[in-house]
Design a protein that fits this description.
The protein has a domain of about 230 residues: paralog of FGE (formylglycine-generating enzyme), CATH 3.90.1580.10. The protein has 12 helices and 12 strands. The strands form 4 sheets. A 4-stranded antiparallel sheet has the order 1-4-12-7. A 4-stranded mixed sheet has the order 10-9-8-11. A two-stranded antiparallel ribbon has the order 2-3. Helix content is about 25%, strand content about 10%. Helix 3 packs across helix 6. It is globular, with a radius of gyration of 28 Å. The protein has about 475 residues and is α+β, with helices and mostly antiparallel strands.
Length: about 475
C-alpha cells in the first residue's frame, strides 16, 4: 500500500512540473488569456555602431554665421535655431582605399556576369568543368534540388530588379593573367572588357573604366507622398559610371604640373589613406547604395539572419554643420577658434595659409593630406575643416535657411536645382572658407580635385546608443 501511495505522489509531482513548465513557457507571449502582451526584449533595440563611424547625438544649435561676416554676400541668412536627430557619421572622409573596394566589386561583378553569360552559351555548367563553364550561374551548376520558390522564379524569369536564376558564383577565382586563361571562350569574354587595341597606350592592357557601371534603385518618397501612391511608379533606377575622374588634377589647374597626381593619386598604394576626389555627387550616392547593399547581403548570409540596416547616405547640409561643430556653441571652426593655429604655432587644418603658399610648414602637405592628420573635434570627427570639401545631399538655395523647417531642415527634391551644397573648405582654400557656417555649391555632375564625401546613417529615436562624452574644449 505504501508503494502505491509513493507511486501516485511521484506521478502527481511529474504532472505538476509539466503543467508549471507549460505555463512558464507561455509567459510573455502575445495573446496570453486574450491579452496583447509584448515581451520586454521586443520593446528595446540596441543600435550597433557601424565600422569607422561615430555616433552623433541629436540636439539643437544655432545655424548660420555667428561670427563676423567678412564678405556680406547674399548666401548668408539670419541666425536660426534648429533641431537635428541623432545619426552615425564616418569619422573621416571616404579614402581612396575604401572607394577602390567599391570599384573592384563593380569590376568583378561585370567580369563574372560576362563570363557567366558566355558559359551559358557554351552549354556547360557542371561542377567538374574546367573551362569557362566554371563561371556559369549557380543555378546551372547546382546538383541539389531547388526549392519551390527557386523553381517558380526560374519558370517566370526571376523577379523585377533581381534575377534569382542569375546568381553569380563568387567562390571561383578570376584568372587575370593571360597565361592562365582556361580556354578560348574565356579569353574572348575577358578581352571584351579591356580597352580596344587602338585606344591603348604603349599597348598596355587596361580594363575599360567606362564599363564600370553600378546600377541601384531608390524610391522617390516625396513624389509618392505628393501623388498619394506607391509602387514601381516611384522607383528610380540609376546606372552610374563609378570610376573617379582622374583628369581633375589637370583640368582644375591648367598651368600647374600635376601630371604625377593624374597618373597615381587614385590607384597607387602610397595614396591609400588620402581622401578620394574626382567623384561626382551621383558617384558618392552610388557608393552609399553599395555600402548598404554589402552590409545587408552579409546580414542575410548569416545562419541567424539579421534585420536590414538603415541605409547609408550623404548628410544634409544642416546635419553636416551640426556634426562639424562637435558640440561647441557659436564656434567658427571645429576646434573652436578664433585662430587657425594652436598655441605652438601649428596649423589646425589642411588649407592655403598664405598667398601662393599651399604648404603648412610643420606638416608639409601641398595638396590633400592623409585622413586623421589633424585633431578630431568634440564628436570624434576628423578633417571637418580643410583637406577636401564634402558633398551633402542638400540642394543649394540662398534662402533655404528661411524656407525650410526648423526640425531636421531639408529641402529634399522639391527644388529642381542641379546645384548641391558642399561644406568644409579644402586644401586649396583660404582660411575663411573653412568656417563652419560658410556655404558653397557645385554642380552635381561635376568632379573636382578638392571635393570628397563622407557617409551618415540615421539612428532611430529611442535606440540604445552609447555616445562618447563630448570634449567641449576650444583650441586657441
Amino acid at each position: 500500500m505504501r508503494k502505491v501511495i509513493l507511486l501516485l505522489f511521484a506521478v502527481t509531482a511529474i504532472t505538476s512540473c509539466k503543467s508549471s513548465k507549460s505555463k512558464k513557457g507561455k509567459a510573455g507571449k502575445p495573446g496570453i488569456q486574450g491579452e496583447i502582451v509584448v515581451t520586454q526584449k521586443g520593446q528595446e533595440w540596441s543600435s550597433k555602431r557601424p565600422y569607422g563611424m561615430v555616433p552623433i547625438p541629436g540636439g539643437a544649435f544655432v545655424l548660420g554665421q555667428s561670427d563676423m561676416d567678412f564678405t556680406g554676400t547674399d548666401t548668408k541668412s539670419p541666425l536660426t535655431t534648429v533641431t537635428v536627430s541623432a545619426f552615425y557619421m564616418d569619422d573621416t572622409e571616404v579614402t581612396n582605399a575604401e572607394y577602390r573596394v567599391f570599384v573592384n566589386y563593380v569590376r568583378d561583378s561585370i567580369v563574372r556576369s560576362t563570363l557567366a553569360e558566355k558559359a551559358g552559351g557554351e552549354g556547360g555548367g557542371g561542377k567538374g568543368e574546367e573551362g569557362i563553364e566554371r563561371y556559369a550561374y549557380l543555378n546551372k551548376k547546382s546538383e541539389e534540388e531547388q526549392s519551390a520558390y527557386q523553381q517558380y522564379l526560374e519558370e517566370h524569369g526571376g523577379r523585377d530588379g533581381y534575377d534569382e536564376t542569375k546568381k553569380l558564383d563568387w567562390s571561383v577565382p578570376i584568372e587575370w593573367s593571360t597565361r592562365n586563361y582556361p580556354d578560348v571562350a574565356y579569353a574572348e569574354a575577358m578581352e571584351s572588357l579591356y580597352y580596344p587595341p587602338e585606344e591603348r597606350f604603349n599597348n598596355e592592357r587596361v580594363l575599360d573604366s567606362r564599363k564600370l557601371i553600378y546600377r541601384f534603385t531608390w524610391i522617390d518618397q516625396l513624389e509618392a507622398v505628393k501623388n498619394k501612391g506607391r509602387g514601381k511608379n516611384f522607383m528610380k533606377t540609376e546606372s552610374i559610371a563609378i570610376y573617379p575622374d582622374t583628369t581633375v588634377w589637370l583640368r582644375d589647374f591648367n598651368y600647374s604640373f600635376n601630371e604625377p597626381l593624374f597618373e597615381q593619386y587614385f590607384w597607387h598604394k602610397a595614396y591609400s589613406k588620402y581622401p578620394v576626389v574626382g567623384v561626382t555627387w551621383d558617384q558618392a550616392r552610388a557608393f552609399c547604395a553599395y555600402s548598404t547593399k554589402a552590409k545587408n547581403d552579409y546580414n542575410q548570409s548569416l545562419k541567424k539572419r539579421k534585420e536590414r540596416i538603415f541605409p547609408y547616405r550623404l548628410p544634409s547640409e544642416v546635419e553636416w554643420e551640426y556634426a562639424a561643430r562637435g558640440g561647441l556653441e557659436n564656434a567658427p571652426y571645429p576646434w573652436g577658434g578664433p585662430y587657425l593655429i594652436d598655441d605652438r604655432g601649428c596649423y589646425l587644418a589642411n588649407f592655403k595659409p598664405k598667398r601662393g603658399d599651399y604648404m603648412e610648414s610643420e606638416k608639409g602637405f601641398l595638396y590633400t593630406a592623409p585622413v586623421k592628420s589633424f585633431h578630431k573635434n568634440g564628436f570624434g570627427l576628423y578633417d571637418m575643416a580643410g583637406n577636401v570639401s564634402e558633398w551633402t545631399i542638400s540642394a543649394y538655395n540662398n534662402s533655404s535657411y528661411i524656407i525650410s523647417s526648423t526640425l531636421n531642415p531639408y529641402l529634399g527634391n522639391r527644388i529642381e536645382d542641379p546645384r548641391k551644397v558642399i561644406k568644409g573648405g579644402s586644401w586649396k582654400d583660404i582660411g575663411y572658407m573653412l568656417m563652419l557656417s560658410e556655404r558653397d555649391w557645385e554642380h552635381k555632375d561635376s568632379a573636382r580635385s578638392f571635393i570628397g564625401f563622407r557617409r551618415v546613417q540615421t539612428t532611430p529615436e529611442g535606440a540604445k546608443v552609447k555616445y562618447p562624452s563630448i570634449q567641449k574644449h576650444q583650441i586657441r
